[in-house]
Amino acid sequence: MKRLITSYFFMILSLVPAGAASGRQPPPAGAVEGAPAEYTLFSVAELERGFLALAFGSDLRVGLTPRGIRRFDHPIRAAVVAGGSVERSAAMTRVIDEYARKVPSLRLSLVSTPATADIEVRLIDEKDFKSALRAAFGAAITKTFVARTNPQCMTSVQSESEGGVVRSISFIIVDKGDAVFFDCAYHELLHAFGLSNHDQRNPWTTLNQKRMVGYLSVYDRDLLTLLYDRRIVPGMTAAQARAVLPKVITDLGLAAAPKPRKSR
Questions:
Q1: Is the distance from CB of 170 to CB of 9 less than 8 angstroms?
Q2: What are the backbone dihedrals phi and psi of residue 119, each rounded to the nearest 5 degrees, phi first?
Q3: Cα separations in angstroms, 125 against 12, 14, 82, 106
Q4: Other CB atoms within 10 A of residue 94 CB
Q5: Alpha-carbon distance 161 to 235, whole Å?
Q6: Residue 21 has pLDDT above 80, yes or no
Q7: Is position 67 within any domain?
Q8: Domain residue limits at 30
Q9: How high does pLDDT run on average in the chain?
Q10: How many structural domains is the chain composed of?
Q11: 73 located within any domain
Q12: Residue 14 in this model has a pLDDT that exceeds 60
């Protein structure tokens, strides 16, 4: 049977800090200077709402209308393609290792050959960004997306009509400082794994384009853990996901215990 492929493109746009939220802690050790606080305590409803907003839809899409959940359904191999005027390949490798360590269900590993990778991360200078997109996707697609936005980084995700991701390519700019590099690195990998949308109203996720985060937040780690649970399958509709999410969140121990009501 012929396999139908859909491509999705995700870009980082304007970036401004976000305000505080519940369960506030300092940013994790090693985060860039100025990184926002870590948000760690979430209810079932907060995790469910964020998952449904970010795992379905896309603000930039080419091809078929998506049917539902998109994610890899097999172990994921990632490769870093070094480039640009600032050496960032070791740092990018550490970011990928962190995802592999903190979200084991990704079954994520590094490979040295991009041709064998499921996720290819290309490191480039800002001046080469548009030409790299044209080389990868063609002039027409690049012109459309650049005209609609002013991207700093971008991820292309190809998926089957049934929802399985076939391949992702991320472009990460290396020469605009640590804050931009790490924000792009963590943000674009979330897209590459299957969290395809943005939510500017969500104060906890890296996928809020009004925030600059630059680390793997507890909230985004939890959403990826949900996405790669065996009960959340490629092609699942929002209604089907909504029906099982509360139990999955509870079973995985992701939600904070509800506060007891005060007696009157």
A1: no
A2: -125, 125
A3: 15, 18, 11, 29
A4: 11
A5: 8
A6: no
A7: yes
A8: 5-251
A9: 86
A10: 1
A11: yes
A12: no
Distance CA 104, CA 188 (A): 19
Q: Which residues contact 188 (CB under 8 A, 6 or more apart)?
A: 10, 12, 121, 153, 154, 155, 170, 171, 172
- Give 217-258 pLDDT, tens digit per residue: 999 999 999 999 999 999 999 999 999 999 999 999 999 866
List the structure tokens of 104. Answer: 């084991």
Statement: residue 4 has pLDDT above 50: no
User: Is 188 in contact with 172 (CB distance < 8 Å)?
Assistant: yes
Q: Residue 45: which of 190, 202, 194, 191 has the closest Cα?
A: 202
Cβ atoms 228, 105 nearer than 8 A: yes
Alpha-carbon distance of 113 to 257, in angstroms, equals 44
Q: How many residues does this entry show for the chain?
A: 264
Half-sphere exposure of 128 (CA within 13 A, CB side): 15
> What is the average pLDDT across 172-187?
96
**Quick check: pTM over 0.90?**
no
From CA 145, how far away is CA 11, in angstroms rounded?
A: 9
- Predicted pLDDT of residue 64: 53
Least confident of 155-169, 178-192, 221-235: 155-169
CA angle (202, 260, 258) in 5-degree steps: 35
Q: Is the residue at 263 inside a domain?
A: no
Residue 64 in domain = yes
Strand, helix or coil at 248? helix
Distance CA 172, CA 206 (A): 15
- The CA-atom distances, in angstroms, between 146 and each of 13, 27, 129, 133, 153 are 11, 32, 10, 10, 11
Query: What is the Cα–Cα distance from 220 to 188, expressed in whole angstroms?
Result: 12
